[in-house]
Structures are given as C-alpha cells and as structure tokens.
Amino acid sequence: MIIETNRLRIVPLTKEQFQLLLVGTDKMEQALGLAPSYESMDENTRMAMEYNYKEVLKYPDHYIWYTNWQIILKSENKAIGSACFKHKPDEYGQVEIGYGTDSGYRNQGYMTETVMALSKWALQQPDVNSVVAETYKDNAASISVLEKCGMTGYKTTDTNIWWKLSKIPIYKIGQETEKDYNATGSIDCQ
Fold first, then answer.
1. What's this model's pTM, rounded to 2 decimal places?
2. What is the CATH architecture of 3-181?
3. 10 to each of 44, 64, 80, 115, 162, how far by Cα in Å?
4. Is the Cβ–Cβ distance between 67 and 55 less than 8 Å?
C-alpha cells in the first residue's frame, strides 16, 4: 500500500525495509530504489524507531500502526522525512502520529500534506475514531502543521500541547413521532 498526494508518495516500510533503516538510512533507500538523501537518524529518532521495530515484530498483524512511513518527494525520488503511528488503535479508537522532515525540505508544506494524508487514511480504518499528536508549546512549525490539518488542541501541560482530529459523527435522521414532540429533558452545560 502506498498513499499518494500531488507531490508525495508515502510508503509504509515492510519489516525487512524497516530493519534496513535501522542498519542505515542509505540501505533502506537502496532497497526502495531512491536517490540518496545523505541523512541519518539522530539518537532520539533512532531510539523511537528501535522501539517501533520491536513492536512490528511483536504485533505482525498490526505492523502498519508501528512501521515507519517514508515520505518520498516524487520530483526527486528522494526520502525527505518520515512519519509513524505510535501504536495500534487503543480502546477508544485513538492513534497517535509522529513525524519529522529533513532540514532542507522544511517550510514547504510537505509535512502538512503528509499528516493530512495519513490522518485521512487512518480515519477511514474501521477501528479508528481519532488521530492525536503531541508537540512542544514552542514548536511553532509543528503547531502550524497540526492546525492546518484541522486538529484542535485539547490538553496542555507546562511544555506540551496535545492535538486531536476526530471522525465526524454520523447521525441518523428519521421521521419525527408524537413521542419526540412530548419529550422533555435537560442539558448540563458544566
């Protein structure tokens, strides 16, 4: 499966491709037939990817929720960043997305395009009700991405903001009955 936008191909890595990524970004790029990016993972990203890879092995039937998704710029056939879901849908149907763009490709709308496409895909899955993301309060670029994707802040700490995009609820509309006219109740707006 590949998600395509006007400018991007967003490719979920297979278990084998993910393992190559951990050996070296260049190995994964070669396996995908990509132009070299000459990028490498920083220590925090490496730790996160190693954790996700272990989860891919632990939950092979849910690998799509743990694998790394490479963001490939079509015009250059080059990986310019990546995104991932941090876990399979939880008991509330919530998944968390994380992402990063290579420095030479920031501020060009690629991550907004990616997060929109992956969120749309996720919300089309039957067990998913919402996509969430966490960002630092001082990360203006990430906040801008999440706002452009229609996410709203729902929780803050001293340093972080949590964002959410939910499925639009579907209401069943039917013919009114006499029972509806006689219904009474109250709404607690606290």
1. 0.84
2. 3-Layer(aba) Sandwich (3.40)
3. 22, 12, 10, 10, 24
4. no
Q: CA 62, CA 82: separation in Å to the nearest integer?
A: 19
Helices (H), 34-160: 43-58, 110-123, 140-148
Beta-sheet strand order (sheet of 8-12): 3-4, 8-12, 68-73, 78-85, 94-101, 130-136, 160-166, 152-156
CB 80 within 8 A of CB 37: yes
Q: How far apart are CA 116 and CA 136, in angstroms?
A: 20
pLDDT in tens, 2-45: 999 999 999 999 999 999 999 999 999 999 999 999 998 889 98
The residue whose two tokens read 């690629």 is: 110
Q: Which amino acid is located at 53 in the chain?
A: Y
Name the token pair of 171.
């209401």
Q: Taking the domains of the chain in order of start, what are their residue ranges? A: 3-181
Q: Quick one: how far is CA 144 from the chain centroid?
A: 15
Sole residue written with tokens 């998704």: 69
Residue appearing with tokens 């919530």 = 94
100-122 confidence digits (pLDDT tens): 999 999 999 999 999 999 999 99
Six token digits for residue 61: 């039937």
The enclosing H or E element of 97 equals strand 94-101
